[in-house]
Amino acid sequence: IMVAVNAKCTKVYAEAGDIVQAGQALCTLDLGSTLSSYNAANISYQSSVQGYQDQSAVFEMQIALLEKTVQDLKELFAIGAASQMEIDQAELQLQTAVATRNSTLSQLEAGMQSAKSNVEQLATVLENVDSQGNVIAPSSGTLVKMNAVENGFVSSAAPVAIIDGVDQMKVTVS
Questions:
Q1: Which of 96, 124, 147, 154 is the most buried (most CB within 10 A)?
Q2: Cβ–Cβ under 8 Å, residues 22 and 34
Q3: DSSP per-residue codes, 115-167
Q4: Is residue 100 within a helix (H) or strand (E), and if so which, with residue range?
């Protein structure tokens, strides 16, 4: 079980030779700042998605209204109640609104993708770690090696623990 961050181990719940179950906490790491960063990144991503959706809805209503205005002016022009200049101005407003929508939504989408990437990057760091900083066994089996020591540090360069389970074995019958 690898953890993609260096952290202090505050508690160890299992040792080499123990039988562990998938989902069982093996040790607790002090990941306060990493967990806070993940939560903040997740909130930022959700906020950017909501902002994109809200802005998109406003633009769609605005464009629909401008399209109706252009159509109404064309009908009024047909009966002599509107000028070509009024139609031209309304069409220009519509084109401006479409261009503004496209530009703004592209910028919001780029921000949303950046926020999503940040969440995914932090999620990778926290793989096999729950919201309290507990390193969780991804599978059941025998804990062959436990590198985490209470009040010691775990490194991203070495596994926190090694589990030897039936689901990792390959049996060949000849």
A1: 154
A2: no
A3: HHHHHHHHHHHTTTB-TTSEEE-SS-EEEEEE---TTSEE-TTS-SEEEE-GG
A4: helix 84-125
Q: Which amino acid is at 106?
A: S
The β-bridge relationship of strands 25-29 and 134-136 is antiparallel
Tell me the residue type at 29: L
Query: What type of residue sits at position 110?
Result: A
- Closest Cα to residue 113, out of 57, 35, 33, 52? 52
d(CA 127, CA 162): 15
Q: Please give the Cα distance from 73 to 81 (Å, whole number).
A: 8
**81: which DSSP letter?**
S
DSSP letters, 56-77, are HHHHHHHHHHHHHHHHHHHHHH
Q: Which amino acid is at 48?
A: S
pLDDT digits (tens, 9 = 90+) for 82-125: 999 999 999 999 999 999 999 999 999 999 999 999 999 888 87
Q: Are 154 and 11 in contact (CB under 8 A)?
A: no
| pTM across the whole model | 0.70
Give the number of other CB atoms < 10 A from CB of residue 113: 12
